[in-house]
């Protein structure tokens, strides 16, 4: 069967260009640009890269950005004080605290200290709760990136059986909520599976749309996928690769080479869901800005 690759890199570039165009028009009318701040604690390699990419995306979209750094010796009280300062800074539309935080800091406490109206990561319980009852909210980046890809590729979701593999707070649970929403994309019949699911293969084989977010490289094999299914691979496990300058490469949750020929659509890793996540953050920042105008 011939399959179509869902190109997240190209879609993300198009969305950023659309945002940049809108921001340029606002600035031309004399409005200030949207402003995103990011708090980065310590020097974790992955976090450094993610935050650098977020700052770069801000520049591409015409946003102002501020990177606020702390050493990993920062106290919880100091971090909470900075969150409070950003909550009250009228020039900042939205901000994120890059995770993970050092072990001596209570991550949940920091997330809950963020004003939910500036929580462009969509991690605050108010935003999570608003999502679950269908109120306007900031939707976390990866789930929104997935919905945008389904939308841009005009993939029918209404009445389809969507199986979500994984139940994390940042992907599995919110994407399940979005797929069952009374909206388009949405209106799907959703099943959530996880590491304790019995008869996993039988359930996955019923999926018209399979969203793999289990964090286990190449977990999904061809025998688990229904012919013609749409497969969205959220996995980004780093595996050592001496031939790469970085020393690693990304491996998805889906064994692409064997699964792709069975699909109608499939996202690659890298270049699928990954590039869409930063786009979602830009969309949320623009939304935060507009809500305050
Ligand atoms: N760490 C890994 N992904 C994310 C994200 O989307 N937001 C934040 N704040 N930290 C992360």
Give a short summary of the structure.
The chain is α/β, with parallel strands linked by helices. It has helices at 8-28, 45-61, 76-88, 107-113, 125-132, 141-152, 172-180, 200-204, 256-259, 274-292; strands at 4-5, 35-41, 64-70, 94-97, 161-165, 189-193, 209-212, 229-233, 237-240, 248-251, 263-266.
Description:
- With 293 residues, the chain is of the alpha/beta class.
- Helix content is 39%, strand content 17%.
- It contains 10 helices and 11 strands.
- Strands 1-11-8-7-5-6 form a 6-stranded parallel β-sheet. Strands 3-2-4 form a 3-stranded parallel β-sheet, with helices on both faces. Strands 9-10 form a two-stranded antiparallel sheet.
- Helix 2 links the parallel strand 2 and strand 3.
- Helix 6 crosses helix 10 (274-292).
- The chain starts with a strand and ends with a helix.
- The model has no long low-confidence stretch (mean pLDDT 97).
- Bound molecules: guanine.
Largest sheet: 6 strands, parallel
User: SS-based structural class?
Assistant: alpha/beta
| Mean of residue pLDDT values | 97
Give start-end ranges of low-pLDDT stretches: none
* Element string (H = helix, E = strand): EHEHEHEHHHEHEHEEEEHEH
Q: What percent of residues adopt helix (DSSP H or I)?
A: 25-40%
Number of helices: 10
Shape: globular
Structure ligands: guanine
For the largest beta sheet, what order do the strands appear in spatially?
A: 1-11-8-7-5-6
First-to-last CA distance: 50 Å
As a whole number of angstroms, the C-alpha radius of gyration is 19 Å
The overall strand count is 11
The share of residues in extended strands comes to 15-25%
